[in-house]
Amino acid sequence: MRSPKDFFAPLAVGAPEPVRQIPFRPSRMIHFFDPGNERMAAKVPEMVPKADVLLGNLEDAVAADRKEAARAGLVRIAREVDFADTQLWTRVNSLDSPWVLDDLITLVTEVGDKLDVIMVPKVEGPEDIHYVDRLLAQLEARAGLTRPLLVHAILETASGVARVEEIALASPRMQGISLGPADLAASRRMKTTRVGGGHPGYLVRTDPVGDDLSEGRVTYQQDLWHYTVSRMVDACVAAGILPYYGPFGDIRDTVACEDQFRNAYLLGCVGAWSLHPAQIAIARKVFSPDPGEVAWARRVIAAMGDGTGAVMLDGKMQDDATVKQCQVIATLADDLAA
Ligand code: GLV
Ligand code: MG
What we know:
The chain is of the alpha/beta class.
């Protein structure tokens, strides 16, 4: 059987374009559905053209007495629905749960050829990925699969964040990592009960004006997830895999959802989870480069010729580094248009 390594190009050294190890497939939104919920399952075919990735969720939000129905529902959906170019992922139960072994055995042997990526929650360190990697290799061999399943880790424990670089490098199957802000908040003993996003108490104020300490200060809300997202992005890019923001739980607050997604996009994430159809459109908008930015990027690239030296464009200095920044945006636009 081919090893997953055979499927990935080696990292290019000194490449003029951003290095990419994983073959490009759009994954701006990973749209979650509960495969054991008949109403949701019936809607999967109509979601296929709308989402880049559809994920059958077996873990949290599926009650203990519905785990088996969810697993069986996903097998049925994977067999019956034509996913065309849309990826089918699953989130299995955590490695310390009583369900994960059956999740992996059933899914890989029954519908392993239909699945693209297995999302593993609550990853504590590289040993969790090693375990999944070996088990997948055994199950793929048993099922006669010729295409290796990829693995995506959720970064949602303090230990996982402390070891994110090792997790990102743990296997050639690694496709990416998502921030899981709800479990991470609990693991870290943060004092927020929200799923992602900000908190009105986490803010910074400007200095007081004169002697009046209470009036006239401007208040800015801070991003609770900035450190973790930045660290995750560095770990993923260094390993040649993809970083994602995870869930945003206040479905009604589309403004805050868009802000959170955009912060993650600007920091380097390629996509986010969508928990409701309304969030699909938000993610598509945020994680597709703005046409004005793309036009500017192309102007800089054209003006920079062979990409070396310096030019002035609209009063702004461009050089070897800015042309690389522009290539990131232009390449993403080209890939999404292809
Ligand atoms: C996602 O799984 C989270 O815990 O935020
Ligand atoms: Mg979680």
